[in-house]
Design brief:
Shape: elongated
Number of strands: 2
Distance between the termini: 35 Å
Oligomer: single chain
Structural class: mainly alpha
Largest sheet: 2 strands, antiparallel
């Protein structure tokens, strides 16, 4: 087997482990793999995935000390230019999760 094919197969094994609900010890025992080899390959796959994931860009925010007279709806502009508008009182955790998911 050539190295690239072997590497791809190990990535698939590492991803199969990540998708399972097993511990590394249980997964390696079921597959007949060395625990240390599985640990090494899973670690490599996680590092590669971290490099493939784009970094989060933070933008400056200006805060105003002047009180708003009327409530203003929340508007988020994505990097793609799409605008998301949320009503006053929208759950900020939901907004954060949605923006994160759409940013992928």
């Amino acid at each position: 087997m050539t190295k690239p094919v072997e590497k791809q197969e190990w990535f698939q094994v590492a991803e199969a482990f990540e998708a399972s609900s097993l511990t590394q010890r249980e997964f390696s025992a079921r597959r007949g793999l060395s625990l240390s080899t599985l640990q090494s390959r899973v670690c490599r796959r996680r590092r590669q995935r971290a490099r493939e994931t784009p970094a989060v860009r933070l933008l400056p925010v200006e805060m105003s000390t002047v009180a708003q007279v009327s409530p203003v709806p929340l508007e988020v502009v994505l990097a793609s230019g799409a605008r998301l508008r949320f009503p006053v009182g929208a759950d900020v955790d939901y907004v954060a999760q949605l923006v994160t998911a759409l940013g992928r």
